[in-house]
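Handout for the seminar on molecular recognition.
Each group receives one record of this type.
Step one: identify the two inputs.
Step two: read the structure output and locate the region that could contact pyridoxal-5'-phosphate.
Step three: write two sentences on what you found, then compare them with the reference statements printed after the record.
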Amino acid sequence: MAEVMRKDTHEYLEEVDLYGAHNYKPLPVVLDRGEGVWVWDVDGRKYLDMLAAYSALNQGHRHPAIVQAARDQLDRITLTSRAFHNDQMGPFLRELCETSGYEKALLMNTGAEAVETAIKMVRKWGYDIKGVPRDQAEILVCSGNFHGRTTTVVGFSSEEAYRKGFGPFAPGFRVVPYGDVDAFRAAVTPNTVGFLVEPIQGEGGVVVPRDGYLQETREICAEKGVAFIADEIQTGLGRTGRLFCSEWEDVRPDVIILGKALGGGIYPVSATLADDEFMQVFQPGDHGSTFGGNPLGAAIGRASLKVMLEEDLPRRSAELGEWFMEELRNIGSPHVDHVRGRGLMIGVVIKDSSGPARPFCERLQDRGILAKETHHQVIRFTPPLVISQEVLRDALENIAEVLEGG
Ligand SMILES: *Cc1c(COP(=O)(O)O)cnc(C)c1O
């Protein structure tokens, strides 16, 4: 007979503190249920999820169609490894390519793995196609970047906390200032094989580059034979009001990296998309993943993509985001420096003189709204894209009171 031992919030927090590595500083809320835009904690309190797992929950918690696809696939087959084929991977690849307009896709699990895939791909393209001398390939990245947590990736972070104590790091990367076209142009050399960029920097604090930055750097890349790689793990799949954020500047990257919402909030699914010119560099044995392309992930990815398109989540995000951002600006709080973003990817920047953003997030939690600070001064609002205007309107009242209160 199973006895249900219910702990309270405090006991769960103590357990994690005692047995877990202290590599995060979460808000003190312990969730045990989620549905759509709502989550509940172990004490039965209901919250509006305004973080949406860093945009991995664009379709909301437990979207019924995605849950159903997962259930159906659990009843058939879950893992084959890439030693064999399965009947979900091919259709998923085709749907990804048809949706995105790229010729090929390579499936991985986490975002960082898909970034690593892009790095390997453009380096090999540099040697095999562009003719860069062996081991001389260079990739340009941006200040304030976030591309994941592997040792290669943190090695080119400009954030001291991400790097400190984790070296030595892989060579072959150079940081250029985000948003600065001239600095980018000056940094390109004959050995530059790729430019890895977030169309909006999410972890960097919802930093939107000036209009034209993506288009101009994209043109320079085309001129100089440099692969333009858009990390759309956070900005992609509707978050900013377009399927891909690059569309805001009519930019077609050479490589697009997807993750997060590709797994519909259920399962890690990531992909690197490119045309044959790049993808052809991979030969059997070059690259892989035990779980990448597995039938459970592929079935969930297919359903996640389908929901995204059928519910036209990019358009919802564009319309609601524009309205919500305006309403946030209209609050006119003395603590707010400015509000920035695109679609439902919004940052409220707190003035330095008003202290860090964290206490504002704690007060939002008290009022049943879960949001997370990023980069000390920024409150990030990235709710599930299935959110309704009514729910957002109700949230605004609480947000206004918290922002005005200071
Ligand atoms: C979240 C994120 C990643 C890393 O994804 P993981 O799944 O955590 O490895 C990479 N790039 C961007 C822009 C991200 O937001």
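Reference statements: The pocket of pyridoxal-5'-phosphate is lined by residues 54, 110-112, 115, 146-148, 198, 202-203, 231, 233-234, 259-260 (CB under 6 Å). The chain has two domains: 64-310, 314-378+394-406.
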